[in-house]
Design a protein that fits this description.
36% of the residues are buried. This protein has one domain. Helix content is 15%, strand content 50%. It has helices at residues 2-8, 22-50, and strands spanning 12-13, 67-76, 93-105, 109-122, 130-147, 150-168, 179-193, 198-209, 217-222, 225-230, 236-240. It is elongated, with a radius of gyration of 18 Å.
Length: 241
């Protein structure tokens, strides 16, 4: 099922009306996917807290309070054996499965969110100086917002992956990843109402890569368009092909 969805989600359009340009599509998907990626990053930190790997980072949050996050965990020793109890020094890796459900409302948009993830955290044995996160999952989100006098509704499903996302420690001075990426293979239907009515169905590969400077500004690529995503404000700017 996942492979089939990924195959469908090549950079192609199923319908291509003249009104909604490729740049418009990229900006719309950057808003919804950018918010989802920031949510994933914060949930990765939340996974560490859930796994007993440390206290929350000051000023950082998991998914907003209006979203329901459900987690389970399994811990493994250095030989890959399941541990009856997780241990800060003897646990080598951890598997965490989690879901996020609910409605998120901001000044700029409203989103109905349904995410499922299956993740691992590695590099935990002993007194670690960094942690590596990997995950696969799916998302079904609907985002509504206004742009340039138009009402827009973006209904999207995606196959998602967290690829070798590394956090240096401690989080207090290293709040953002220093390497790795998050990839979303998105199938979306964008519906416009207002002065004009239009619907466009698209598929795009969305990728966020994390630079070593870890300052919170990261490139987000939607098909052939690249923008800048701020991990603190979740705003997307400077989109260009």
């Amino acid at each position: 099922m996942v492979a089939a969805l990924v195959g469908v989600a090549a950079c192609s359009d199923l319908t291509q009306p003249e009104g909604l340009t490729d740049l418009d599509v990229a900006q719309d998907l950057a808003l919804s996917s950018g918010d989802a990626v920031v949510g994933d990053v914060l949930d990765l930190i939340g996974n560490e807290v859930f796994g007993g790997l440390g206290a929350p980072v000051a000023g950082a949050r998991e998914s907003p309070a209006e979203l329901v996050v459900t987690r389970s965990r399994t811990c493994y020793d250095g030989s890959g054996n399941v541990q009856t109890e997780c241990n800060r020094l003897t646990t080598a890796s951890m598997r965490i499965q989690w879901t996020v459900d609910g409605t998120r409302q901001t000044d700029n948009f409203t989103a109905a969110i349904h995410h499922a993830r299956d993740a691992t955290i590695s590099g935990l044995l002993g007194e670690e100086t960094s942690r590596t996160h990997n995950a696969v999952g799916t998302s079904d989100d609907t985002t509504s917002f206004q742009r340039e006098g138009l009402n827009k509704n973006v209904a999207e499903s995606s196959v998602d992956s967290v690829r070798n996302v590394v956090f240096n420690l401690p989080h207090a001075t290293n709040p953002w990843p220093v390497s790795g990426s998050i990839v979303r293979h998105v199938n979306a239907t964008i519906t416009i109402t207002g002065p004009r009515t239009e619907t466009r169905t698209v598929s795009r590969r969305v990728e966020v890569t994390f630079p070593p400077d870890a300052q919170g500004n990261v490139p987000i690529k939607i098909g052939d368009v690249t923008c800048t995503l701020n991990l603190v404000t979740r705003k997307v700017v400077n989109c260009s092909a």
